[in-house]
Design a protein that fits this description.
CATH architecture: 3-Layer(aba) Sandwich
Distance between the termini: 11 Å
Structural class: alpha/beta
CATH superfamily: P-loop containing nucleotide triphosphate hydrolases
Radius of gyration: 16 Å
Order of helices and strands: EHEHHEHHEHHEH
Number of domains: 1
Number of helices: 8
Number of strands: 5
Bound molecules: thymidine-5'-diphosphate
Helix content: 40-55%
Shape: globular
Largest sheet: 5 strands, parallel
CATH topology: Rossmann fold
Length: about 200
């Protein structure tokens, strides 16, 4: 069966549950007979994973360099994984995408959103998702969910920083309701999974 391109993105603050929901969505698609590729940003390519480690572990990195590194990892992912997968008819589920750069490097770190959008367009060849799910939750609540001994650079940021990230996401979501869906990240995992599936099954029907 030929299907139109299906590219789905999940976004949210740390601990919002988007990685769990990305995996559940990928498994559900497979169960329904829809071959798919699950990827995460930054990463999911050889070079992208190296860039990921570099960004997360760096002791010194200004926001602009950070943006370029995320964009380089994104370009690797687009060229080597996402575009070929979509071309061969696979659905793609992506844990974070260009919106993370606008929320983190833009809203929280103060880079010009127009500059970020331009770089995003170049890195992605203007590829836009069909659906974006924002797992919206207050950072104060989601942080308690992350069980980890060592915190990366972003997890060490203040609550105020993460509140700015959340604000950025909400504003992006509200500006494009055609593709964005805001979900209450405090709802039970199963319930969120069902809400996501309802929307996804609509577009692949
Ligand atoms: P990760 O451990 O994947 O976080 P999470 O599990 O919450 O997705 O680390 C990725 C970090 O990088 C995360 O804190 C968000 C940040 N990030 C940006 O700041 N800009 C970006 O463009 C992307 C893709 C991620």
């Amino acid at each position: 069966m030929t299907r139109k391109k299906t590219f789905i993105v999940l976004e949210g603050v740390e601990g919002s549950g988007k990685s769990t929901q990305s995996l559940l969505l990928s498994e559900r698609l497979a169960l329904e007979g829809i071959d798919n590729l699950l990827v995460r940003e930054p990463g999911s390519t050889n070079t992208g994973e190296k860039i990921r480690n570099l960004i997360l572990q760096a002791t010194e990195l200004n926001p602009l360099s950070e943006l370029f590194l995320f964009s380089a990892a994104r370009s690797e992912l687009i060229q080597n994984e996402i575009l070929p997968a979509l071309k061969s008819g696979l659905a793609v589920v992506c844990d974070r995408y260009t919106y993370s750069s606008i929320a983190y490097q833009g809203y929280a770190k103060g880079l010009d959103p127009n500059v970020i959008s331009k770089i995003n367009s170049i890195a992605t060849e203007r590829l836009e998702p069909d659906l974006v799910f924002l797992l919206d939750i207050e950072p104060e609540l989601s942080f308690g969910r992350k069980i980890s001994d060592s915190k990366d650079r972003f997890e060490k940021e203040s609550t105020e920083f993460h509140n700015q990230v959340r604000k950025g996401y909400l504003s992006l979501a509200k500006s494009n309701p055609r593709i964005w869906n805001i979900l209450d990240g405090q709802k039970p995992k199963k319930e969120i999974q069902e809400l996501i599936w309802q929307k996804v099954s609509n577009i692949i029907a």
